[in-house]
Amino acid sequence: MVRWREVITLRDPDGEIINQDSLGDDDTEVAFEILGRYEDDIATGEYKLVALESRESDDPIDSTTITLDAECTITDVLWAAENPDMDWDKNSPVWDEYAAVVIKNEGTIPSLLTELRWKGAPAAKLGRDDTVSYHHETRLPPGETTAYSFGQIYQTSGAGGSLDCSELGTEPMTVTAVVQVGPDPSYTQQIEYGGDQSCDLTIVEGSPTDSDSTGGEN
Q1: Does 8 or 60 have the greater pLDDT score?
Q2: With 50 as the cut, is the pLDDT of residue 63 above it?
Q3: Which of 10, 29, 109, 154 has its CA 20 to 30 A from that of 132?
């Protein structure tokens, strides 16, 4: 919120105007939405609020800067079958094949989770692609947030057939969180495949991987 008159502009770290609003006769404040479902990404860094006498004026009355930063890390990937006490939709007969991602934001502002990409997931091995992905719209405030998958990530059989786990050993699964502010974090989990048609899964280990520099951060 800013207490100035006339026109307030919001400028990104490159100095470009990304939003502006006029003050009415009785207004003393304006507010801008930084994060929104229709934005692709938001650059982190110093943003400047500039007060102008009018939309046609280039002479600032006053200005102030704010720093916007979000730094997200995936700290854990949880399999429903091993964590039955969490908030799974147990009305689904396959609830135990779902996954959850714990995301920690160590920045100063919220980010927004827009997609989870699961490369090398058991469910992906059932299909033609090596990755399954699902769109999300989950706010990531500073602190920890748990995002639940929209698909059966640990699925090993379906209408198209079943995995032959006798041909698989210990395989990596990497989940990448596509976020609106900051780089896209990833986490790799090692999954051991055993058995034949029953396809027993065992989580061996998991750890965060380097953030994707091509993600939300500009």
Answers
A1: 8
A2: yes
A3: 109
